[in-house]
Every structure is written in C-alpha cells, then in structure tokens.
C-alpha cells in the first residue's frame, strides 16, 4: 500500500506546486506596475489611499492621518483565452482621474519577467489652469514593466514609461528667480524610467522601494507659484507588504501624492513630488477573487 501512496503523494505535491505557480497576483507594487498577471477569468480589486499631509507635521495631527486624502479603486480582469492578458479600470479622486487599459505579459522566464502595459487617462474635472499647471488633462501612457530576479527573493524592477501629455504640456515652464526665463513652451510628452526593488523575507512579508526620477526637462524648472529657488523633485516610495489568503496589504511612505502612471511618472503632476522630508503615509489593499 505504501508503494502506491508514495507516487500519488508526489504527484499531488507537484500538482500543488504547479497550481501555486499559476495563481493570480494583482500587478501592482506600490505605485509602479509589476509584470505579474491575473490568470484565467480571475478578478483583482485594489483600494488605494494617499494622505497629503506630511508625517513631519507632528503627532498632534496623528502624523498626517488627520489630513486630506485621495482614495482610489481599481479592477483588473484576467482574459482566459489569451494567456497573460489583463484588462483594467481605475478611478481615483485626484482630479477625478479615470484610467482604462490593458497589460499583456510578454515574457515569463526563470530570471526575467516582462509585460506591455497601455492605458488611457482622463481627468474628469473641468479643464482649467492652476499655478502648477493644467487640470482636466487627457492622454495615454505606455509602460514596459520588467522584473529581474536576483535569487529567489530579491526582484529588481525597471519600468520604462511614456506619458503623452502632462499638466505643463504646451505651457512655458517657470524657472527659479535669478535664472534666464524660458521663452519656449514645454512641448510633447515625457519619457521616464521608474526603478523598484523588493525583497520577500518570508512567504507573507516583503519590503519594497520605488524611485521616480525627475525628467530632464524639469531639472532647471520651478513649480509654478514657488519662488524660493526650488525645482521639481525626484519621487520615491518605500514600505512593506503583508500577504494573507488572497489579500495583500501594503503600507508605505512617499513624497509623490499620485497613484496613476501619468501622476507618478510625469514629474510635474501637482507641482511634482514634494521635498524628501515632506513624505506622507500611503497604503494599498489588493484582493484576488
């Protein structure tokens, strides 16, 4: 009897490992997309929260928790007939931005995983001009989330991103006082490369960090209305994640208030990321059905 049970047990374990390898994962780290995918007809839901008030504004304000927040909700759907294809929609309170698009996993090797992601974004608020740029902007983004596995638990992410239109498109970028004024408007979109690193030190707990470089065209530009010599900043986010049955909870600190590709990677959204010392609390809750 034992000779018959052993092969059956081995097959069951192998099958279980295969099923785990084929399980769905919501394709999001903190703000950057991952090259994961929702399998079959599975549904993934994410709730995002970004606090605006910086943590350094003291404990009397609960380290930013008393301040204003931007909340968002998104859905990602697996498309079973086309392996690796996901469709998604997302809505966030930041300028009532609505995003819709697709992500196709194009490579899933032992050491490299890659996906192609494209989306349309629409700020539903009435179009207008603020000191930090336009609102009511529409456009598209294209990304190539690429993950490199350094061992079993350490993953390096590169996310090349093109944003077709930003809040300062077709406007003349202001410059810090005492420098030569710009005379030509900021034309065209923005290309940027987001960087990420995450490490899973148990099956449930992981830490991660993301970096959103300042696009070169904003290196010598000042956010509108700021006259203290400041220029646009680099963005970052860092935190940890806890994964339990079909849920993933992520808590982070970030100086970038947005969540969508056009908000985080454009470099000029809402005046760009805040100073590094002005980071605030952020969290995501993802659920797979």
Brief sketch in words of this structure:
By secondary structure, the protein is mainly β.
What does this structure look like?
The protein is mostly beta strands and 289 residues long. Helix content is 8%, strand content 43%. The protein is built from 2 helices and 15 strands. Strands 1, 2, 3, 4, 5, 8, 9, 10, 11, 12, 13, 14 and 15 form a 13-stranded antiparallel beta sheet that branches. A hairpin with a 4-residue loop joins β11 and β12. The longest helix has 20 residues, at 2-21.
Structure keywords:
289 residues, mainly beta, 13-stranded antiparallel sheet, two-stranded antiparallel sheet, 2 helices, 15 strands, globular
What sequence of helices (H) and strands (E) makes up the elements?
A: HEEEEEEEEEEEEEEHE
| Number of contiguous helices | 2
* β-strand number: 15
Shape: globular
The radius of gyration over CA amounts to 21 Å
Low-confidence stretches: 5-21
